[in-house]
Write a structure and sequence with these properties.
Layout: H1 3-17, H2 23-33, H3 38-51, H4 58-63, H5 72-79, E1 90-93, H6 94-103, H7 109-129, E2 136-139, H8 144-156, H9 162-168, H10 177-184, H11 193-204
Antiparallel strand pairs: 1-2
Helix pairs in contact: 1-3, 5-7, 6-7, 9-11
Length: 234
C-alpha cells in the first residue's frame, strides 16, 4: 500500500472520529484494507469523509469500496423484471441471485423489493468483508430475443466474456467490435480454453477462405485448424 494512502487512512479516521490512531491500531486497519486496490480504497476514504459522522471503522470503509457489485437500487432494477416472469433473462451476481430467490415468492413486488434490498445490503457487506470476488452468472428465460439482448449487454459491460456468450447462445450474430478486441488486442487472458475455442470458431467463419489453412494459436496454447466455407467464385 502506498505510504500516502496509509497517511490518508489516518487522516480520515481523524476527520470522521476526531481521534488519532495509535501505531498498533493503524497497523490493524491497514492490514484489514491492504487487499483492496489503492484507487478504489482512496475513493472509499473520500466518501467516508463526506458521509460518516461518528466512530469510523474498517467495515464502514469496506462498505464504500466499489468492487464492481451493483448498489441495492441498481441490483433491484436489474432483477425486478424477473418477478413472476419465466421468460425473463438476467446476468447477475451470486449476491443478487441468492437474495432474489429468497424474496421471489413474496405477496407483492413492493414487499419483494424491500426485502431484497435489505438482504442484498447484508450479503454484499458480508462478501466484501470476507474478500469474496464478484462473480457474474446467467439465468436465461424462455424468450430468445431477451436472452440475446441480456447476454450482449453483459459482454459490453465486461460481465461475460465473448467466448462465454457464444457458448450460451451458439448462433449469436454478429461478432461485435468489443468481442474482436477481447481476442485480438491482448484482452483475452481471462478466457478459458473452451471460451477461446468458441470465440475462435466465430472469428474463423468470418475470415477469407484459405484452401490450405494454417494452424491458429490465439491464446492459451490453443492450436486448431477450422476450415471455413469456400466463397462463391465470380
Amino acid at each position: 500500500m502506498r505510504p500516502d494512502l496509509i497517511k490518508m487512512i489516518a487522516s480520515t479516521f481523524e476527520a470522521c472520529s476526531a481521534t488519532d490512531l495509535s501505531d498498533g491500531a493503524k497497523e490493524l486497519v491497514v492490514s484489514a484494507l491492504e487487499e483492496y486496490p489503492d484507487a478504489a480504497l482512496e475513493k472509499a476514504l473520500t466518501r467516508c469523509v463526506k458521509e460518516v459522522r461518528g466512530r469510523l471503522s474498517p467495515a464502514l470503509i469496506i462498505d464504500r469500496i466499489d468492487d464492481g457489485r451493483p448498489g441495492p437500487e441498481e441490483a433491484w432494477a436489474m432483477v425486478d423484471h424477473m418477478y413472476g416472469n419465466e421468460s425473463a433473462s438476467v446476468v447477475w451476481t451470486d449476491d443478487m441471485a441468492a437474495c432474489f430467490f429468497l424474496v421471489c415468492n413474496s405477496s407483492s413486488k413492493i414487499t419483494a423489493r424491500m426485502a431484497f434490498m435489505e438482504k442484498y445490503r447484508k450479503s454484499v457487506a458480508s462478501s466484501k468483508a470476507e474478500g469474496r470476488p464478484i462473480k457474474w452468472k446467467t439465468s436465461l428465460g424462455t424468450d430468445p430475443d431477451e436472452r440475446e439482448r441480456v447476454v450482449r449487454e453483459a459482454v459490453t459491460k465486461n460481465r461475460l466474456t465473448a467466448g462465454r456468450a457464444h457458448e450460451l447462445i451458439p448462433g449469436l450474430p454478429p461478432l461485435s467490435t468489443d468481442e474482436k478486441t477481447l481476442l485480438f488486442e491482448g484482452k483475452s487472458d481471462d478466457l478459458s480454453p473452451e471460451e477461446t475455442k468458441a470465440l475462435c470458431r466465430v472469428v474463423l467463419k468470418k475470415v477469407t477462405y484459405n484452401p490450405e489453412p494454417e494452424p491458429l494459436t490465439p491464446c492459451h496454447g490453443l492450436v486448431e485448424v477450422i476450415k471455413v466455407e469456400k466463397p462463391n467464385e465470380h
